[in-house]
Specification:
275 residues, alpha/beta, TIM Barrel, 12 helices, 8 strands, globular
Length: 275
């Protein structure tokens, strides 16, 4: 199946909009796991086992693995996800963005080495920087559009004087992703949960694209407002929560606590769909 087909099937089968981000910080692991030689894999695999029936995707953040020389554990983790829940897509959160020749190598890393189903990218070097990823026709690509960090205002809200209607930069990215750049129906957008009004604006400009929305949970995004701003019949919504679920407990009950928090978050998001 293509990434988009996996996503279309995952949402009604559970049903859920929850994506669990896998951002391992060994200092926060429970003591029972912390001293294991493959602690990062063991911890993340335990979270996957506890939550895979509640989610529409998992999103491992590559930097949290690379910082600890644990890329091999990331490879094992993605294989584990595909074994226990083969229809749940894996989004590699890499935020790569480079010239075409280098992007080709990053695409090999994401889709051949790690076997991810989708990847997050920065679009700011233009279409030729994302084109190598689109050559993998069964994979998905999420472009950074309106991010949840405070510094996102530095550039993303600037208006483009030479474009019709003078859109902001993030609005223009949404337009490109919906139309000119979406050559094979592979594109989605990353939009932060801390700006629900801007989620609604992105959704108006890109009604059929999947939206990956981080920022619910520890970052303070409002789950209800996020769902209502981003959900349409055409465009899937994946709402990511990482730390709030991963570190719901630092004790021996961390798996049960992660599952309970995932259920709570999933139900809150689903409730927002009700009139």
């Amino acid at each position: 199946m293509t990434f988009m087909q996996m996503l279309e099937q995952a949402q009604p089968n559970h049903p859920s909009m929850l994506c669990v981000g896998l951002d391992p910080e060994p200092s926060k692991f429970p003591e029972s796991v912390r001293n294991h030689p493959d602690a990062i894999f063991e911890f993340c695999a335990s979270i996957v086992d506890a939550t895979h029936d509640l989610v529409v995707a998992f999103k491992p953040q590559v930097a949290y693995f690379a910082a600890h020389r644990a890329e091999d554990q990331l490879e094992r983790l993605i294989r584990h996800i595909k074994k226990v829940s083969p229809r749940i897509p894996v989004i590699l959160d890499a935020k790569r963005g480079d010239i075409g020749a280098t992007s080709k190598q990053y695409a090999i890393e994401a889709f051949e080495r790690y076997e991810a189903d989708a990847v997050t990218l920065s679009p700011f070097m233009g279409f030729d920087s994302i084109q190598p990823y689109l050559e993998y026709a069964n994979k998905g690509v999420f472009l950074l559009c309106r991010t949840s960090n405070k510094g996102g205002d530095d550039f993303q809200n600037l208006r483009l004087a030479d474009k019709p209607g003078h859109p902001t930069l993030y609005e223009y990215i949404a337009q490109l992703a919906q139309h000119d750049w979406n050559t094979n129906g592979q594109l989605g957008l990353v939009v932060g949960a801390t700006y629900p009004e801007e989620i609604a604006r992105v959704r108006a400009l890109a009604p059929s694209l999947p939206l990956l929305i981080p920022g619910v949970g520890a970052q303070g995004g409002d789950g209800t407002a996020t769902v209502r701003a981003g959900k349409t019949p055409m465009g899937p919504v994946l709402i990511n929560s990482s730390r709030a679920i991963l570190y719901a407990s630092e004790g021996a009950d961390f798996q049960a606590a992660a599952r309970a928090k995932a259920i709570e978050t999933r139900d809150l998001l689903n409730a927002a769909l009700q009139p």
